[in-house]
Amino acid sequence: MIEQFHTEIQALRSLHHPNIITLYDVYITDEKIFIVMELMEGGELFDYVVQKGTLNEEEASKIVRKVTGALVYMHSKNIIHRDMKPENLLLTHKPRSMHDIEVKIIDFGLSKCMEEPVARSFLGTRGYLAPEMLQRRDYSRSVDAWALGVIVFVLLCGCLPFDDDSVTVPSDEMVRAKFVLRFPRWARNLSPSAKNLLSHLLDVNPVTRYSAEQALNHPWVRGETAPKDSLLQSPGRIKLTPGKGKVGGAGGVGGVSVSTKDHIARVRADRAKSPVASGGRPRGGAHHTPKRQLVRKTSI
Question: Residue spans with biased composition (Basic residues) (predicted)?
Fold first, then answer.
């Protein structure tokens, strides 16, 4: 766990971007490390979207543009995040409107400075892991682009795109079978441009998958093809329909009717019990409670 704090400190000291949380200072004693970070008073982006109730694609596009721009900057510094997910997107303040949103990426404990073109460590969060990570193959910054695709899907459709119950997927055939992109029926109003972006980000082939830079240049992300009148259901409003099997992504919705917010809460609780990352540090109030966000400490 201490190593992850050092990793986060090293990464944040080299990153200065309006959509990445700011590290102010670090204090080290014989027993504690105090990390002083930017105060984030707005809570999680996902929770705000749930509370808002509805949004349109133009509004979603503005959020995605900020996050994608931060990823492009991060990758230009040869840093990959490796744990991109909605919980790691916080708001600086409670927005008065969607035009007032300031979102920032947090939690660089699993990040890596890419001294080599590929990485090998198996870590991250289930549901957001790229196929090549599940296959225990070498990977690059494209794993962040995959996770970005999952975040965009959750923002637009209100559910995870794929079941997240697998730890490994050994064969290419299993990968192709598992990661078939399907859109839920409540997303029928989604624009062709949004679906096009998702198909490129959620490409199982890391070679042909969009990079963050390509995503940033996509017309939907730029706001050129994101319609104002395409009203999306928020994650808090959507109900997964009863069906066979277990509760999962849009393709195979589960055996009980449950709100997506409750489903994601269940997924979070499950992750806390069995994190993918070996030695992963505990998640908690430090990132979510403003008074504890400012100064975070851990025993050496």
Answer: 284-300
| pLDDT confidence tier of residue 167, bands split at 50, 70 and 90 | low
**Nearest residue to 134 via CA among 190, 176, 105, 94:** 176
**pLDDT for 53:** 72
Binding residues for ATP are 87-88, 107
Please tell me the distance from the alpha carbon of residue 186 to that of residue 45, in angstroms, as a whole number. 21
- Rounded CA-CA distance 38/20 in Å is 10
- Least Cα distance to 158 among 243, 77, 54, 68 occurs for 54
What's the rounded mean pLDDT across residues 48-52?
82
Q: Which residues of 248-263 are buried (b: 16+ CB within 10 A; e: fewer)?
A: bbbbebbeeebbbbeb
Q: Which of 49-63, 129-143, 209-223 has the lowest mean pLDDT?
A: 49-63
Report the chain's mean pLDDT, rounded to a whole number.
Answer: 78
Strand ranges (E), 3-91 = 23-28, 32-37, 43-44, 54-56, 79-80, 89-91
Look at the domain 40-238 and name its fold.
Answer: Transferase(Phosphotransferase); domain 1 (1.10.510)
Q: Is the pLDDT of residue 158 over 80?
A: yes
Parse the chain into domains and list their residue ranges.
40-238
Catalytic residue, from 25, 30, 47, 83: name it.
83
DSSP string, 150-206: HHHHHHHHSS-SS----S---SHHHHHHH------GGGTT--HHHHHHHHHHT-S-T
Residues that constitute the known binding site: 87-88, 107
Q: How confident is the model at residue 99 (pLDDT cuts 50, 70, 90)?
A: confident
For this structure, is 83 an active site residue? yes
Tell me how many helices (H) and strands (E) the chain has: 11, 12
Q: State the angle between helix axes of 142-157 and 45-52 in degrees (0 to 180), rounded to the nearest 10.
A: 20
